[in-house]
From TrEMBL, chains A, B:
This is Transcriptional regulator. Keywords: DNA-binding, Transcription, Transcription regulation. Residues 18-78 form the HTH tetR-type domain. GO terms for molecular function: DNA-binding transcription factor activity; transcription cis-regulatory region binding. InterPro entries: Homeodomain-like_sf, HTH-type_TetR-like_transc_reg, HTH_TetR, Tet_transcr_reg_TetR-rel_C_sf, TetR_C. Gene3D superfamilies: Homeodomain-like, Tetracycline Repressor, domain 2. Signal peptide: none annotated. It comes from Streptomyces mashuensis.
């Protein structure tokens, strides 16, 4: 009966579970963006998310478990690719999305935090690899279509081209204090497209 | 008198200071490679380096101070660039050096650890940026010479080309579980060279 009453807090279990997860992952992301993995405490996350501690400990267990689920959620939330009709247009759309994400005051530190967390935790590393696998796979068809249109040589490794767009932006974020501006995004797209056209990503015959 | 006696432990102070620093930084690097920043404890480093605790605390103060000095030392120890006479040859030499370093069982985790440590510590980040500034500056003349030889268009941003060689290797290390093999190094060099030849790194007129 209570499930049908329409009162607040009486939504179906799936809905409540999903809302609890969303609140906990939002809080976990906030903490990671503010202070990195070292600051991630399950009791603090429960308090911020206004969720019972027991629920958080039972469901996520450890900070590493929470980071792994956050990465799974980020992969689910990942924006679909843009289709512009040209290789350069598609790669620019991708580069600008990565650039805006990494330059964002919450998202940039959050990505730094999960990359750092993955450095010495195999479970987090596996979740991180899975996140990038999904993201790269989402954008690979842009490159495959460019091969079909004759813009790129046959045998071009689509996933490597997509990685080549993101790589300079991550490298800039992690190893320099230089701004992650639109110009750096456009240069990343332009150089990946030029290298792909020149056949630099053609897989050698095996 | 003791300073001239030639007995072990009686070397000039400069020599002793340098040996102490070398031993401490070696131990700090070992600890970072094994367990990351979270594992870096000054007392443990002193024990491993067989150096007095007080010396380590007085000279380095904190784990962040130790990481900053380790990065300064890595910049000093950085190998000089190779000159092969062609752009592709030089970039390949650079890419293979980066690949061997990141694939090394001690150096790879050490680089992951310092990148992770820099994510939430401004002092470590500054030392890390300085390390990459020096390293990129060391290899930039390869690109400048290629411009002078007419291999690359005038106005090519030499430092961006050098960064483009390293970027895919770091991205591969951090975001995938794929092997950092010779093929990935050669692809990184080949694609940076192709993009540079196509003018992707020419700085727009300002």
């Amino acid at each position: 009966m209570a499930a049908d009453s329409g009162e607040p807090g009486t939504l179906r279990p799936g809905g409540r579970t999903a809302r609890v997860r969303a609140a906990v992952l939002q809080a976990a992301g906030d903490v990671l963006a503010e202070g990195g993995l070292a600051a991630l405490d399950l009791a603090d996350v429960a308090r911020r998310a206004e969720v019972g501690r027991t629920t958080v400990y039972r469901r996520w267990g450890t900070p590493a478990g929470l980071v792994a689920d956050l990465l799974a959620d980020m992969a689910e939330q990942s924006l679909p690719r843009t289709e512009t009709g040209t290789l350069l247009g598609d790669l620019e759309a991708n580069a600008r999305l990565v650039q805006r994400t990494l330059a964002d005051p919450r998202q940039g530190p959050l990505f730094k935090a999960v990359l750092a967390a993955a450095a010495f935790d195999p479970r987090t590393a596996a979740a991180l690899h899975r996140f990038y696998e999904i993201r790269v796979g989402e954008w690979a068809p842009c490159v495959e279509q460019a091969v079909e249109r004759g813009e790129l040589p046959p045998g071009t490794d689509a996933r490597e081209v997509v990685r080549a767009v993101s790589a300079p932006l991550y490298y800039r974020l992690l190893t320099t204090g230089l701004p992650l501006d639109r110009a750096s995004a456009d240069r990343a797209a332009r150089s990946a497209a030029a290298a792909a056209r020149a056949g630099a990503f053609v897989t050698p015959e095996s």
